[in-house]
Amino acid sequence: MAGNIVITQYISLDGVIEDPVGMEGTGLGDWTGPYNRGPLGDAFKERELRDAVAMIYGRRTYDGFAAVWPQVSGDFADRMNALPKYLASTTIKTPEWNNASLLGANLEGAVRDLKSRINGDILIYGSGSICHTLLSHGLVDEISLMTYPVVLGRGIRLFPLGVATNFRLIGHEAFDDGIMLTRYRLAD
Length: 188
Hints:
alpha/beta, 28% helix
């Protein structure tokens, strides 16, 4: 068995991943809202979620998703709500979203354990601090970046200072409104 940690992010041209839909009150606004990724972009996001076997969330991303997805219907929402969800939080004691459980205080150890027990893609949407920790410990296998043609000038970036690693391109695709998907796998 081998879990495959996949970071999937909306990202600006200057590398910002923070608050793409404006739910976090950062003042960055809904910077993805003016753009439409079109049917190819929607198909990718649906395929990505369909192929996942679990998800990892940080507390802020979990709070935003858990407030919305249980109230949404349709195939995408049904899949989102049904997947096992692992929450990295020291402030939430009992996650209430369907199939959600806590990872525990040792994030690195908990993710290593997940990777050994789960076979398939474990997605991470958003969750910048979780991404930073896992990248720092070499626990990320793939990165999918949906790059929006906007420069924000500030905000949390995907790659923390001091993290150096090599990835190889495994796919790319152009979507509507100048949005580009690039997918990378950890170099062997």
